[in-house]
Amino acid sequence: MPTPGAWPSSSSRRAPASSIPLTDWDLRETGYPVNGLYVTDLLDLFEVSAYKTEKRAEIEANGYKIIANIGNNSTDLVGGHAERTFKLPDCNGRLF
């Protein structure tokens, strides 16, 4: 369960827009409140790191402070806009 006052945000590389309900369900089922969810458009799948950097900058511009950026791919972590980054094992593209 997230720390009180924290706002978990997810940017997903799953299939575009159609994945929002599944990703929302996954996060809620795990115990995270969902206040915002970002997913790439189909054309953005080729510019993942730029998309994720842009969305982190947008979150900061809305007054939030990103204290951690966690991902299983280096493209999840590049571009700044987080105090710390944490690289998880790739596990063949799947997080468990």
Strand order of the largest sheet: 1-2
User: What is the averaged pLDDT score?
Assistant: 77
Beta percentage is 5-15%
Task: Return Rg in Å.
Answer: 13 Å
Overall body shape: globular
Estimate percent helicity: 25-40%
Order of helices and strands: EHEHEHE
The secondary-structure class comes to: alpha/beta
Quantity of strands, as a count: 4
Give the CA-CA distance, first to last residue.
16 Å
Total individual domains: 1
Describe this structure in words.
This protein has one domain (10-90). Helix content is 30%, strand content 15%. The protein contains three helices and four strands. The chain has helices spanning 20-30, 48-61, 74-77, and strands spanning 10-12, 37-39, 68-71, 84-87. The model has no long low-confidence stretch (mean pLDDT 77).
Structure summarized in a few sentences:
With 96 residues, the protein is an alpha/beta fold. The protein is 30% helix and 15% strand.
Could you give the topology of this structure?
Elements: E1 10-12, H1 20-30, E2 37-39, H2 48-61, E3 68-71, H3 74-77, E4 84-87
Parallel strand pairs: 1-2, 3-4
Keywords:
alpha/beta; two-stranded parallel ribbon; 30% helix; globular; 4 strands; 96 residues
